[in-house]
TrEMBL record, chain A:
Residues 317-387 are annotated as: Disordered. This is Transcription factor IIIB 50 kDa subunit. The keyword Zinc applies. GO terms for cellular component: nucleus; transcription preinitiation complex. Keywords: Activator, Metal-binding, Nucleus, Repeat, Transcription, Transcription regulation, Zinc, Zinc-finger. It comes from Galemys pyrenaicus.
From TrEMBL, chain B:
Its main location: nucleus. Belongs to the TBP family. This is TATA box-binding protein-like protein 2. Residues 55-67 have a biased composition (Basic and acidic residues). PANTHER family: TATA-BOX BINDING PROTEIN (PTHR10126). Keywords: DNA-binding, Nucleus, Transcription. HAMAP family: TATA_bind_prot_arch. CDD domains: TBP_eukaryotes. It comes from the Eukaryota. The keyword Ion transport does not apply. Residues 55-93 are annotated as: Disordered. It is found in: Nucleus. GO terms for molecular function: DNA binding.
Amino acid sequence: MPGGGCCPDCGSTELVEDSHYSQSQLVCSDCGCVVTEGTLTTTFSDEGNLREVTYSRSTGENEQVSRSQQRGLRRVRDLCRVLQLPATFEDTAIAYYQQAYRHPGIRAARLQKKEVLVGCCVLITCRQHNWPLTMGTICTLLYADLDVFSGTYMQLVKLLGLDVPSLCLADLVKTYCSSFKLFQVSPSVPAKYVEDKEKMLSRTLQLVELADETWLVTGRHPLPVITAATFLAWQSLQPSDRLTCSLARFCKLANVDLPYPASSRLQELLAVLLQMAEQLAWLQVLKLDKRSVVKHIDDLLQHRHMLVRKAFRDGTAELESQKREPQGQEQRQGKEEAGSSSLDLSERKRPPSPALLLPPCMLKPPKRVCPPPSVSTVTGDENISDSEIEQYLRTPQEVRDFQRAQAAAQAATNVPNPP
Amino acid sequence: DDLTPLGSPPLSPYDVYIPNPFNPETVFSSHLEVQQTPGDFSSVDLSFLPDELTHENKDQTVTRSENEVEENCNSRSQPSGEPLPSEQDVSLGFTSNSLSNSLAHLHWGHANSLQLSPEKSNTLPLTSITPMTPVTPVSECSGIVPQLQNIVSTVNLACKLDLKKIALHAKNAEYNPKRFAAVIMRIREPRTTALIFSSGKMVCTGAKSEEQSRLAARKYARVVQKLGFPARFLDFKIQNMVASCDVRFSIRLEGLVLTHQQFCSYEPELFPGLIYRMVKPRIVLLIFVSGKVVLTGAKERSEIYEAFENIYPILR
C-alpha cells in the first residue's frame, strides 16, 4: 500500500485496500487490523490515509439540515433523475421542498407524508414548466395512495401560496401516445398493427380537441379520454385490419395500462362522431353505427369544425329558453310537428335537427327528482314538549335489560374459543 | 346514450336562444314593486325616472329623496375615489322581492353616491346613462336562490357529562370510546345529529335552517337535562352553513381557471369540480360542469347569497 500509512497496532506499513461489501477499508496485511473504515473516520485521518473525502461531507453544510430533510432532498433528486427531467427542474423542486420544510406542520408530519411531499414538489415544478406529468405517474413511482397525495398536494399549494397551471393537454397527448409500443414490429405487435408515430399523434390530437369541444373532457380525468382517442385514431388509420381489435387488447399490445373510464369515454366519443356523421350527406345514407363510423373518422375530422357547429346546438341557451319561455316551448313543439310532417314527405333528405351540446352528465335524466324545498316556519324558540323528549329516553326496565344484554355480550367475547 | 335527434326542422343556432329582452318597462315596474316595501329604499332617488312611469303616490318619496339627494349634493364633496358622473349611475341588479334585504342594500349603496340633476329629461334614462360601475341589466341578475342544505352549530351545556350514563339511558345515542370520544345522538324532528362531549360542549349538524339548528340544539340540551345533568344553553353559535343551487347551464371550468387563476383550483385528476375561494365574502364554492354550485364556509345566510350573486356573472 503506497503512502505513509502505518498500522496503529503492529506499526507495519503493509496496508492493503480491501472492501467489505461496499465499504472500502484499509487493512493491515500483517495483523489484520482495520485501519480505516467507511464512516468511522474523520476527514483528517481519511485524508491522512489518502482516502478521498467528498466536498459535501467535509464542509458541514448538511449539519444544519436535519437527516430527515436530507433524505427528502435526496429523494427529490432521485425522482427527478428517474423521470429524466431537465437539470433546472431539480433545483426548483429542491427549493420547494426546503420552503415547505420550514413550516412546522410539514416538519412534524409522518414519513409517509414527507415521502408524498417529494412527489408534490416535483409535480408542481413540472406543471410550472408545462411538463406533462400526471399524478397517477408519480403515485405509481412513489407507491403512494392518490388520496394521501391529493391531501398533501392541496395543502402544499395552499401553504406555499403557489399558482399551479393546469395540465397541458396537448403535451400530455404527445408524451402519452409516444409511450405506446406500436411504432415498430415486435413479437407481440404484428405488422398490420404497426403505425406511423406522427400520423397517429396528429389524429389523436384532433380527436382530443374534438372531445374537449364537445364537453367530454371538462371535469374528467384527462388520461382515459386520451386513451380512447389514441385507440380510435389507430383504428381509423387502417380500419379494415384493426376493427376486430378491442380497446383492452389494444392497450395490452401497446404495453400501456387501460384506465377504467376509457371504455365509457370511447362510447361517448363514438356517439359524438355519429352525430357529426349524420350531417354529412354521403354518410347519412350509409346508416352508420358505432363500428362502421370508424372507417369515416378521416372525413369527419377534416370537416369537424363545420360539423360540430351543424350537429349540435347550444345546450345552454336551450335550457334557459326552456326555463324562461314556456310559450316558446309550444312554439317549438308546433315547429316540430310541422317538421315531422315534412319529414314524411322529404324522406331523410335533410339532416336531422341538432342535438344538445352539453356535458354527458347534463344529458342523462336526473337520477332522482329533487323535491322543492318546503318552507319551514320554525322560529327556534318553540316550546319543547316533555313527551317528545321522553320518547328518546329508556325506561328503567329497558335500562336493566340493556345492561344485562351488554354484560352478556361482554362475557361472550371474553370466553376463549373452544379448542 | 345516443343523442336522438328531434324530428323538427333544422333551426339555425340562433333561433332557439330567446334572450330575456332588456325591457326598460319591466325593469321599472319591478323597481317600483320594490319600492312598495317600506323603509328600506327610502334613501333612493327616483328623479331619473321619466315622469310617466312614476306612480302618483310615489311623488312623496320622489320629492323626499330629491331633497335628500340635494342635501347630499350640497354637503358632500367628491365621494372618495369615484369621479362625479354627469349622468346617473344606476345599479339595476334587482328584480324580485325575494332578494334578501342585505342584498338590496348592496345594490342600492351605489345609488346613494349619485350626483343628479333633478330636472332630468323625460327620455328613457337607460339609453343616456354612462354607468361608472358595470350596469347589471335585469336579464343577468340570477333570480336563483341557493338552498341551505346543512347547518353546523355549537353550544356549551356548561356542565361535565358522564357519557356512559347518557349512552345507557338514551335510546338515540351511540357511544364507542375506542372510536370517538363523544356520544353521537340523533333526533327525528328536526332531523339532526349531535356530538356531545364530556366537557359539556356539543356540536349539532344536519339542520336545514338556522332556526331549526337552534331548536334541535335545545332539544338535545333538554334530553341531557332529563337525564339528570344541570345542562344550560350557552353561546349557541352557527359555525358553518352549506348551500347548493343550479345555474342551469354548463360551465367551462378550464376557462374559468384561466380568467380567475388566483381564486380557482381545478384538478380534474383529483376532483371533478372547481374550487373557488372567494375573498369577499370568505366563502368556498364548488363549481361543477353541470352548473351545480355548492357554497360553504358561511356563518351567515347573507354571505351565501352575496357569494352567489358575485359568482353568477362570472359563470355566465
